[in-house]
Amino acid sequence: MNVKVLFRKDLRELMVSRKVLILLGVFIFFALSGPLSAKFEPELMKAYSNKLGPGSVIHVPAPEYTDAYKDTFNNLQQAGIIVVILLVCGTIVDEKKNGTAAFLLTKGLSRTSFLLSKVASRVLLFTTACAAAGIVCVLYTYLIFGEFSLPNLYLAFLLYWVYGIFVICVSMLASVLARTFTQAFFAGFAAYFVISLLNLVPYLDRYVPGRLNTINGDILSGANLPEHWMIPAAITLLLSAVLVFLCQRIFQKQEL
Length: 256
Known about the structure:
- The chain is mostly helical.
- It contains ten helices and no strands.
- Helix 2 packs parallel to helix 6, helix 3 runs antiparallel to helix 9 (211-220) and helix 4 packs parallel to helix 7.
- The longest helix has 35 residues, at 111-145.
- The model has no long low-confidence stretch (mean pLDDT 87).
């Protein structure tokens, strides 16, 4: 079995397990709910204010189309990332547990090829979900607000994609190290939580992967793009490569 055959096999398994539909469904749901909540949340708050009685006024600014992007990205950066961890963290541990990994490796496939195929298929799945969410969000925002153009919006989606690739690699490492799906999920989520906390550390926050989410916030708020935004992006990609290397080294030494 060569790498191309294994890659196609991984894609078929993702389709059969409905992981493709789950991730696409979640991302498209957020892409639709972002513009909707941005449009109607002020009206709901106003209606709630009227029920509070005289003298109780909640001042809510008029909705803008940029709020649709903010709501969408907030959901993708939080719940969306957790779904990614949930779908990826069982990748290797499940293959080891059911004996599929050992069977495939007896067919002459290298462990490196086996691991890289898993990573590549998950990256392709995430890329497809990001592209679908981006297209749906832009089109639906235009349909509701009549506007959609925002400077560097493409960069916001690109930086989110880079951050998501990093999360996939973290989840893969957790899957290689763990013995059960539960262990892998909690290890992946714990790592994600710790990485998010690093964004609160002064000076260090300029270079950690979580910085990409902060830059996205600046882009969606219309602020000037940070001068050195490429540094945290490059560091995040480098860390992703390091994580894949660690996965490969650890997987090479494991008994299946």
